[in-house]
Amino acid sequence: MDVENISDGPFVGAIDQGTSSSRFLVFNAKTSELLCFSQEEISSFHPFEGWCEQDPEEMLSKTVRCMEKTLQECEKKGVRLNAIKSIGITNQRETTVVWDKLTGKPLSNAIVWLDARTKGTVDTLIAKTPNKSKDFLQKKCGLPLATYFSAVKLKWLLDNDEVVRKAVAEQRCLFGTVDTWILWNLTGGTNGGKHYTDVTNASRTMLMNLQTQQWDPELCEFFEIPDHILPEIKSSSEIYGKLQSTVLQGTPISGILGDQQAALVGQLCLKRGDTKNTYGTGNFLLYNTGKDIVFSKNGLLTTVAYKFGPKGETHFALEGSIAITGAAIKWLRDNLGIIKSAQESSEVASTVKDNGGVCFVPAFSGLFAPYWQTDARGIIIGLTQFSNKGHIVRATLEAICFQTREILDAMNQDSGIPLQSMLVDGGMTINKFLMQMQADILGIDVLRPSMSETTALGAAIAAGVAKDVEVWDLQTMAKDSKQLQRFSPALDAKTRESMYSKWKKAISRCMKWDE
Predict the structure, then answer these.
(1) In 298, 366, 468, 499, which residue has its Cα 20 to 30 A from 162's Cα atom?
(2) pTM of this prediction?
């Protein structure tokens, strides 16, 4: 690296507060090159079956620590810290945080997006709709009534946690998704912290009207959520406030995108029809529908893709959300102990020529798109005395690919234009064995970019194009050709469809298990 040429920047930082880790990354705004980053794992707690919690204070402290470590590395490389012109935030979406605005302390642990404790709440809400339909609110918010979304988690807290209920009654409670919690604290906390969210995260709560892009009084009334605890909705790219009490004090925070929308932007999927699939704890396939709000007839979500600036045009997307993909690999490692690391999964799966008739449906939190079945549960089926750990690990990797195939089929039906290839990103895409398997099961090319940090890059882009920052030339960047590795299908169509048919049979057997 030529320090003399890069030391003056401009640079943009990105906070990436995901489900499994906190990270801080610094990018060169001229080249999109990643200069430095630091990462720390985040703990998850499972106090009861179906519950998943995290400590908001751990998220915050590890975010700050990652910032400090990354900036130390930057200085070692000769990067001038005052050349870091802005900071973007990207975050795990739907995860629900409530805190006391007087003390700054969380009122409970954060309820993570894949937490399934709210099944009873969902059933009660569906029962009170006129036609007993989980899609009753779709035309307003684009989402089905499901355990996934923030309003349902917040409703559960209001119904079941006396500490939260008391703080709301005394008007001490603030609610936010993870972006809001991080922003409020980094811009001052109890001393003037900014209580904002962006339009992409707001679109995942079930409380925002897609047409107005503001909190909807009827939706708030439906969930019995007082609007005084909600953050103000902003665009995805504008100056929200400035960092306080850090090495970068005074640096503006000027970009916020939910993690999947950030990956869409980081992959430069900025035109209608552009599509990407992210492989992380879960999988998330987004299809850019441009300025049109498109409602799915096949179990997909309608969501905001991004909005650059208060006066910018809002772009929307269809999304297929899968709860458990990478989390299933972690389960093999941590719960069953049949692999020692995620990297070992492809090696173990390669010890067998096929799945040996084994299918694994990892419906640990029910099934998300396209089914939205909260009563589904995970199954491993087709076991015989011949089965070994290689078959189970291979079936786990195949489950990731089959679930993506189901989403892609729904996407093709909704769009009417079958995709010929699919862009991918996320931590699991380093697994070449998995990427080839995905191409085989989809029957189309899978394209992996050379830049693996597309989610954080998307947050940095949003921050860098904000008014009064404007250090990122998005148009020039979009013209540059992407460096992509191509995985083409090598499996014959008959075998592919036979495997998929068996998967669909396994899906049918896991339904209504937890009635």
Answers:
(1) 366
(2) 0.89
